[in-house]
Amino acid sequence: MQRVFNWFTPKRETWLFRVNPALKFIVFFAFLIITLVNQSLPFAISQAILYGILFYIFSGYSLKKLLLLSIPLVISFLSTGLTMLLFGKGETVLWQWGLLKISEESIQHALLLGSKSLSFGFVGFTFILTIQPVLFFYAMMQQFRLPSKYAYSFIAAFRLIPAVTEELQIRRNALKVRNIQFSKGFRGIYERLQSYTVPLFAQSIRRAQRIAVAMEAKQYQMGAARTYYYPTRYTGVDMVFLLVMICSLSSAFLLSIYR
Amino acid sequence: MKKLKFTDLLITIMIGVVFGVLMKFWDDLYTVVKPIMPVARQLLYGMWFMVGPFAFLLLRKPGTAFIASIAGASLSAFAGHGIEVLMYGFAQGLAAELLFAAFRYRRYSILIAGLAGVASCLASFGLDLIYGYAALETWALIVKYGLRAISAFIFTGIFAVFIVKALEATGVTSLIRPVDKKEYTMLDQ
Fold it and tell me: At what angle do helices B110-131 and B51-59 cross, to 10 degrees?
């Protein structure tokens, strides 16, 4: 686990790291919604290029790591694009073989879908690579008034992930040692699900309950006015970030209209 | 009585997170099946709708389906599925929550849980349409999402209800569910 975290240390901390994490989330989430609802191909492509610039230049990671992270993006670009290319609607048929059909419209739609999936990937990775999850929840509490009981529950539950994955591994080994055979078909899927989930959930629920009781006993006052261990605030970088993002998105939009 | 206490909230979010971890492993299976058998792949898709209805069946309180679904999605987002899954988690959780709310949070049967899964499936279908899948051939749309809806029913209805029953047998649900009238009367005897 530790090795995984070490992998995610950037080569240099760019200005994106200093932006308030909650503000960054809101802005990036707005980008995702714009990407989702947009139906124009030129705008989708110019957005993908803009987010690509953010990802490759401003995330602060070495090119080798960025290329490694690009592999799933390329795969999802191809798989979403190919489905649309071969099974998409279209009148001007260019090639057909049984149910598979490529038409001019389906090429357009495939490119649209592919650029959207690239945009999603770039925005998502840029966000995840440049924030610290704990600070993100602290900023959500302080800048966006997320009730503290939600934020602390998330932080506590995220802290327990290593324990959950370890338990899953133990369960897998235990089943292997006992040489458990599962049936075929849906029955087998159920048996598999049950044999993994029941012990995992029973244990996690007990643990979560104990932690909640302990937190309440230690006077974590949920809902009352409180101080924070990590104070987060807005700084000058946030203003710059907001301005740069609005300007670049609008120029991407304008470029797509006046090519 | 029905309001979420801090304990309930932490358990709900924990369930979401555990599902997030499970979905990460499920994804491996899904990716293997993906290219070889497109039909089997859609039939395995129900796992992604399971988290919300499962949390509600377990805790039986308003809000749990929605919160657990968002927690599961945020874990998936941090685990590298991209933050767009948050939108799907939001829509799917909301759909399941609304369906349980329509029955005043009093029904925990296979049918209602299954319908909640189908509602989640419909919500994700709506998002997919906006995303751009509306341009697929109609037959492809029907096959893809029809199979998905069937799978949603099987996973969130049948599987979730039975797994919750198995969990009841372990005794952990007594930690989290509101105390029954029956249990009070037992004290009087």
Answer: 150
Interface of A with B in 131-170 (CB under 8 A): 133, 149-150, 153-154, 156-158, 160-161, 164-165, 168
Give the residue extent of every domain in chain A: 2-133+235-257, 148-217
- Say if the ipTM goes beyond 0.85: yes
Q: What is the pLDDT of residues A47-100, one digit of tens each?
A: 999 999 999 998 888 889 899 889 888 988 888 888 888 888 777 777 777 777
Sign of CA dihedral B90, B94, B95, B97: positive
What is the set of domains in chain B, with CATH numbers? 6-188 (1.10.1760)
- What is the C-alpha separation between A148 and A144, in angstroms, rounded? 11
The residues in A 82-101 lying below 8 A from B, measured between CB atoms, are 83-84, 87-89, 101
HSE at residue A255, side-chain half, CA atoms within 13 A, is: 15
Q: How far apart are the first and last CA of chain B?
A: 24
Is residue A234 within 8 A of residue A23, CB to CB? The reply is yes
Q: pLDDT tens digits, residue range A101-147? A: 788 888 888 999 999 999 999 999 999 888 888 899 999 999 998 88
For residue A89, give the nearest of B6, B130, B135 by CB distance: B135
